[in-house]
Amino acid sequence: MAEGLDWESLTEATSGAVGALVSTTALYPLDTCKTKFQAEVQSHGQRKYRNLSDVLWEAISKRQFLSLYQGLGTKNLQSFMSQFVYFYSYSYLKRLYLKKSGAKSVGTKANLVAAAAAGACTAIVTQPLDTASSRMQTSAFGKSKGLWETLAEGSLGEAYDGLGISLLLTANPAIQYTVFDQLKQKLLTQQSSMVLTGKAQSSQASLSAFSAFVLGAISKTVATVLTYPAIRCKVMIQAVNTEDESNKSTQNKARKTMMGALSSIWRKEGFPGFFKGLEAQILKTVISSALLLMIKEKISKYTWVMMLALRQYLLVSQSRIKSH
């Protein structure tokens, strides 16, 4: 069992999942405000939220500040699982490519394919949790339901609302981590060339916390700008109905498909509507992703040591079982 596991990929997955857990928790109120702001579509020239701070002020004025954390448990579970699945798949596919091709490094095209494939696996596994967390975040303050109750309100198919867009949005992490990896390799190469001692660079070499934060922010900004219209459509499809009851059935139908969401935005908000909330998305996701990658880089060495210890423990246990 111990020999059959890909321990390096497992280390990457664990480090990434822990980083996701910390960054998601730290920035969750901002994420809730962003999601509610993105989900609203202007109706008859009227809108409830004109900017991100309006959402925060609503929670404060209604004495529902803690409701900014509604759905945190579900979001943390989704973030942990998605990052674990993503980083394990991503690392495993890159190592598999190097093994099969005999190449010394993963090129940009192969990196994109590996990232997209990992993203697709992640979306399929975690989509119900993603849908549930979006519904919980966009519920009226103080009226959010639990995970199972939220999922039980609809069919299994509805739990996978937005899966098509999620698969399309595999381009987002694919772009992000490809840009990050390429920038990281260039920076490490430059740092290595400046070392005059002649010592070999460690296979576990990592970026400083600041460098990882900056590269993470740059890579996520690029990915977010390129894929934002699809991101907003996904939020609209997964969100609970926020319109008045007279428009309820129409809105729900429009939000079931990407084309319906795009049509709704175009009719009511025009072209600028496709980028409504972009600043909030960049603020939240860039900081979150930068924190995630920074934490992942800093704990990867310790995680690797823990995995080696676990591997040794499993090997010893297996040998004892066989000897008996």
Number of H/I helices: 13
Q: The CATH topology, please?
A: Mitochondrial carrier fold
The largest β sheet comes out as: none
Strand content: under 5%
Report the helical percentage.
over 70%
Count of beta strands: 0
Question: Any guess at the CATH architecture?
Answer: Alpha/alpha barrel
End-to-end separation: 17 Å
Work out the radius of gyration.
22 Å
CATH superfamily name?
A: Mitochondrial carrier domain
SSE pattern, N- to C-terminal: HHHHHHHHHHHHH
Uncertain runs: 196-204, 242-255
Mean pLDDT: 78
Structural class: mainly alpha
Overall geometric form: globular
CATH class: Mainly Alpha
Number of domains: 1
Description:
By secondary structure, the chain is mostly helical. α1 packs antiparallel against α4 and α5 packs across α9. It is globular, with a radius of gyration of 22 Å. The chain starts with 6 loop residues before the first helix and ends with a helix. About 5% of the residues have low confidence.
List keywords for this structure.
Mitochondrial carrier fold, 0% strand, 324 residues, mainly alpha, globular, 13 helices
Topology:
Blueprint lengths: L6 H20 L1 H12 L12 H10 L10 H30 L6 H31 L8 H6 L3 H4 L3 H6 L2 H23 L15 H30 L9 H7 L3 H12 L8 H46 L1
Helix pairs in contact: 1-4, 1-13, 2-3, 4-5, 5-9, 9-10, 10-13
Summarize the structure.
By secondary structure, the protein is an all-alpha fold. The chain has helices at 7-26, 28-39, 52-61, 72-101, 108-138, 147-152, 156-159, 163-168, 171-193, 209-238, 248-254, 258-269, 278-323. The longest helix has 46 residues, at 278-323.
